[in-house]
Amino acid sequence: MSNDVIHEENACPINGITELLSRKWVFGIVKDMFSGKKHFNEFKEGKPEMSNASLSNTLKYLEIQEIIVKNVLENDSQTVTEYTLTDKGLKMNMLLYEIVLYGLYVLEDNLRSEDYKNEIRQAYEEILNIDDSKT
Fold first, then answer.
1. CB 44, CB 2: distance < 8 Å
2. What is the pTM of this model?
3. What are the structural domains, with CATH classification, of the chain?
4. Which residue numbers delimit the HTH hxlR-type domain (predicted)?
5. pLDDT over threshold 60, residue 133
6. Is 84 helix (H, G, I), strand (E, B) or coil?
7. What is the pLDDT of residue 7?
8. Burial 42-63 (b: 16+ CB within 10 A, else e)
């Protein structure tokens, strides 16, 4: 079997995913959404260096990519905006999980105790809805 196809123009899916993930705040926002955050100000929590403009631009980019959907809810005199993951966004769970594992056990292997790494891994398994049979 030849692997020449991976070198053909537009045949490599790595370019598309690299474009998506190369944006600075994409991972943090998507991770936040997996952990239950839905509102603009919630995404800013724990990211003091992220400007409102950067957050707004990243949310809009994720909408255009159909990773998230913006819902504007109106009840009585209050308007609330919520962001939720689409099916396409939810399918990022395994990708994020593999990146977490690579970070914990390869890039930063000696920075944490094994118990702490396992605790972090288990927390990500929970929020990313990782099935134990896949790990």
1. no
2. 0.83
3. 1-88 (1.10.10.10), 92-135 (no CATH)
4. 12-111
5. no
6. strand
7. 67
8. bbbeeeeebeeeebeebbebbe
